[in-house]
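Many introductory courses stop at the sequence. We go one step further.
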Amino acid sequence: MMENIKDLVKNRRSVRAYDGREITAEHKAKLCAFMESIENPYGINVEFKLMDAGEHGLKCPVVVGTELYVGGKIKCVPSACEAFGYSFEMLVLYAQSLGIGTVWLGGTMNRPAYEAAMELSEDEMMPCASPLGYPAKKMSLRESMMRKAIKADERLPFEELFFNGSFDFPLTEEKAGELAYPLRMVRWAPSAVNKQPWRVIVAEDAVHFYLKRSSGFTRQETLDMQRIDMGIALCHFDLAAQELGMKLSFSREDPKIPHDDDTLYIASYRIDRH
């Protein structure tokens, strides 16, 4: 398990400008070993692959200064998007621990070339990829403008994301108690266009995760970027709770808490107090 989750989460940002140095052999070996060890609570395997942009004709207009990318592929099965989001975020945070920059790429790339490089089967998908490299000392103008446009350094208030028992009662950090830290790490998770679609209800010894749909997102039959965001949120909560020594069990048993039509139950973590 990774340590210092708070530092990794708060210091990590989407990096689109790199300094041109190749990743060291030591760092590349560590990344490859970590890729092989990544698991997610859904038990759905994500296969990672390092790809050279020149060799595979990979292009991304918003990325400069690196030729190395990592992609992930997964079977098109139920909950694949959540599983992918969890596993890919594990890799992103581990890369951050090595000083390696990343940015989630979903649309700003020539997807057919990336999918060809990943050697997808008919029953697989490659939801996202990321460049890998050492961040440039200064962000590019385009990078700064993109971050400003989506308010990348801002997050919704704690009380708008987390609730006590039902969606009728906002949860404060003070009332969250020992769960305040894991929930803060959820709050600071990255999401597509910074929409922060996660909503969480704390009820007794269970933490229930819901997806609050944002307008403007197109969903394919298998690929759902906001479900991937939910996997990222689950990853942050799980890692932070483990860092505190909490014993968790993962569940997809819907607690049947009333919610709006644009809100979807995703999964729960139950806390073992014994």
